[in-house]
Specification:
By secondary structure, the protein is mainly α. It contains 9 helices and no strands. It is globular, with a radius of gyration of 26 Å.
């Protein structure tokens, strides 16, 4: 009985504290928790974006999609210049097309929602690889210290990484799609190894 006193007092104090906190929150006296850096960035981004109607969002998305498509077509018409050692026109058109596609997604789902989706723990690595690949694509196109042949090869590799990152990001919205892709790739590697070694 003597040892139950402190436990009982603690047990009674905790509900009282919770009730008092709930009361303060109900009457508006609860202090706001400090925002994280990510939340502050989201608020700053949303504050500069006007409130749009559903029709305006769709219109903005379609416009960005069309511009992105035209820029992508323009980049592929400059593949000859890329092969000749002049990657700048291709990189500029291709990168602007990707940026317009990202802006279009912000129109469709809203900046805050899209940023949360992109930096969700299941998509953050794909998002980071995608943006890093875009950065290195631009860097290799304008940095003069890279030899011509190596420059083209690195740019093609960066674009390939962009495609893979975008594919990995996109299939994250499909249930079990990533697991299926991994299973198919692993099975393909096993079959290839069996053919090379001659084992059954």
């Amino acid at each position: 009985p003597g040892s139950a006193g402190p436990l009982t007092a603690a047990g009674e104090a905790m509900p009282q504290t919770t009730m008092f906190s709930s009361f303060k929150q109900a009457v508006g006296l609860e202090e706001e928790k400090p925002k994280t850096m990510g939340e502050e960035m989201e608020d700053a981004l949303c504050s500069i974006c006007p409130e749009l109607t559903y029709q305006q969002r769709i219109g903005g998305y379609v416009t960005c999609f069309v511009v992105s498509f035209l820029l992508s077509i323009g980049s592929f018409t400059r593949l000859v210049q890329l092969a000749q050692g002049n990657p700048t026109p291709f990189v500029v058109f291709y990168t602007l097309g990707n940026i317009m596609a990202i802006i279009g997604s912000l129109f469709l789902s809203g900046p805050r929602s899209q940023c949360k989706k992109m930096f969700d723990r299941t998509r953050i690595f794909a998002t980071l690889f995608y943006f890093l690949a875009i950065f290195f694509t631009i860097f290799c196109a304008f940095y003069e210290g890279i030899p011509g042949n190596a420059r083209v090869g690195i740019i093609v590799l960066c674009i390939f990484v962009q495609w893979i990152a975008m594919l990995w990001y996109t299939i994250s919205y499909i249930p079990y799609a990533r697991d299926y892709v991994c299973m198919v790739c692993c099975q393909g590697c096993k079959d290839k190894c069996k053919k090379l070694t001659g084992s059954k």
